[in-house]
Specification:
The chain has about 210 residues and is of the alpha/beta class. The chain contains nine helices and seven strands, in the order H-E-H-E-H-E-H-E-H-E-H-E-H-H-H-E. Strand 5, helix 6 and strand 6 form a beta-alpha-beta unit.
């Protein structure tokens, strides 16, 4: 569900240069126990990669990407290494501070960030981001209603984390930008732009930060 019109969307997305993700509840259902390491789904990972590719096509360089999580998440660290993102922050209490630090490290502003989140502890970071994508949680309808009322997000997914809500968010962005068909066709090709992007992306070595 989009909460902003086309004109406002185009204005905001034109300024986006980086992608930042919460982990638990975004890449997965948020389930935790001493014996469970929260992981991710391949379909969601593909969505993120295609969104990164679309920004590379637009800007000519891989966009800065980070995960900010409140826990120590080996799954997040493994994904960061596999996908060659720029930074993975663990055991974070104040996500807004970390988002601002990440922006300074990459010479961008918070309004240049598209932030993906799912719950109350993410709202301070979402409040300063340029685009806010909320992963829906069906069991928390009053929270979603409050987010809509206060305009704390620009999009709310139908599916939650762990049920491909992240892929839904990424696909909606690509479709609204009229880039879905372009990135899919270029990803299908065995030569050309995607391989150039992949070569540049795979040179990125993630930095890991633990509070």
């Amino acid at each position: 569900m989009w909460l902003i019109d086309d004109i406002e969307w185009m204005k905001r997305w034109s300024q986006i240069k980086a992608l930042v993700f919460d982990w638990d509840g975004v890449f997965n259902s948020g389930e935790k126990s001493p014996n469970i390491s929260s992981g991710y789904f391949e379909a969601d990972s593909m969505g993120v990669n295609m969104l990164r590719f679309s920004l590379w096509l637009r800007d000519g360089t891989p966009p800065p990407v980070a995960v900010i999580t409140g826990a120590n998440n080996p799954g997040a660290q493994a994904w960061a290494e596999r996908e060659h993102i720029h930074a993975c922050y663990g055991k974070v209490l104040n996500k807004q501070d970390i988002l601002e630090s990440f922006c300074k490290d990459h010479n961008i502003k918070p309004e240049n960030v598209c932030f993906f989140f799912d719950d109350i502890l993410d709202l301070n970071a979402a409040s300063i981001a340029g685009v806010r994508m909320l992963l829906n949680r069906p069991g928390a309808p009053f929270f979603s209603d409050l987010v809509k009322k206060r305009q704390w997000a620009d999009f709310i997914s139908k599916q939650p984390g762990g049920q491909y809500g992240l892929r839904e968010c990424c696909d909606h962005i690509l479709e609204r930008n009229l880039t879905m068909e372009v990135v899919v066709k270029k990803r299908m090709a065995t030569t050309g732009d995607y391989l150039t992007y992949l070569e540049e992306r795979n040179k990125i070595n993630p930095q890991f930060f633990q509070k």
